[in-house]
Input
Amino acid sequence: MTAKLIKGTEIRDQILKEIEEEVKKIKEEHGVVPGLVTILVGENPASVSYVTAKIKTAKGLGFNEIQDNQPEDISEEDLLALIDKYNKDDSIHGILVQLPLPKHIDEKKILNAIDPDKDVDGFHPVNVGRLMIGGSEVKFPPCTPAGIQEMIVRSGVETSGAEVVVVGRSNIVGKPIANMMLQKAEGANATVTVVHTRTKDLASHCKRADILIVAAGVPGLVKPEWIKPGACVIDVGVNRVGEKISEKTGKKIAILKGDVDFDAAKEIAGWITPVPGGVGPMTITMLMKNTLKSLKFKLGIA
Ligand code: NAP
Output
């Protein structure tokens, strides 16, 4: 293997330690801790598992974590009223509504009802606009793209003047990370190209990339010959390609593969993220960082 492995688990642990220390300091100096409410509607098993992980992380950091579980048949009106309650609650700095919501509820309406200054997921149109403007306007960069940028920067990869190619243009990964990398800012200043299903000759774009960020959701889409020698390859894709029995627990678990042919790519790239254990662990971490940031904005110390 020639590429340096960018381990999301190690970077996650570093950042969580930094957050924990800051939470302690703020508690000592200001007598407050970050407050995060997680609203879960219904009992979708995947959502329960995400929410459980978020709650565990928040509690471990010393946050005031409120788990607000609501029945599957809650009305849209009642859910909006609940959000309004948390918008007005001074002890709450981050509001998280776990998606997907039941079909009778308009997701967009719910997400747009969250106070943009408590929207730690960074999906509210106000925060999307702030991200686009950049600089001091930015409050809450969306968590997966923010995690990707942290991984690049903390691995010592030069971004200024770099050719960044982003495969995928979703609102949660492709578009925001492309926007973040082109900002006139540290950890950015890149020349950015975004490619998608209508792009002619995907390979030729990928081959130019000093930093290749792949978020397509297509296992093995990026071939090793598309990778520039020495490039930094960030594989965001998480694709279930089968099942196996876990050696640790003896239970059935999913076999996960990224969007990049990892085994071959690691012989060409300069840096590469594994799947699993790469970008995955960063998302919840950045959610915690945004919640802490929200409290810091409120205290005027951000
Ligand atoms: P998405 O909304 O489905 O968007 C996929 C994007 O990739 C689209 O813009 C699509 O182009 C493009 N694309 C798909 N197939 C392509 C192809 N053959 N050639 C070129 N472009 C192609 O997906 P997403 O939500 O961004 O997620 C992408 C992947 O990242 C998924 O595997 C997801 O599970 C993973 N993910 C991981 C994390 C994490 O680890 N924390 C977080 C979020 C997502 P069009 O726009 O033209 O359709």
About this structure: The chain has a mean pLDDT of 97. Residues 47 and 252 are 19 Å apart (CA to CA). The pocket of NAP is lined by residues 144, 167-170, 172-174, 195-198, 202, 215-218, 221, 236-239, 279-280, 283 (CB under 6 Å).
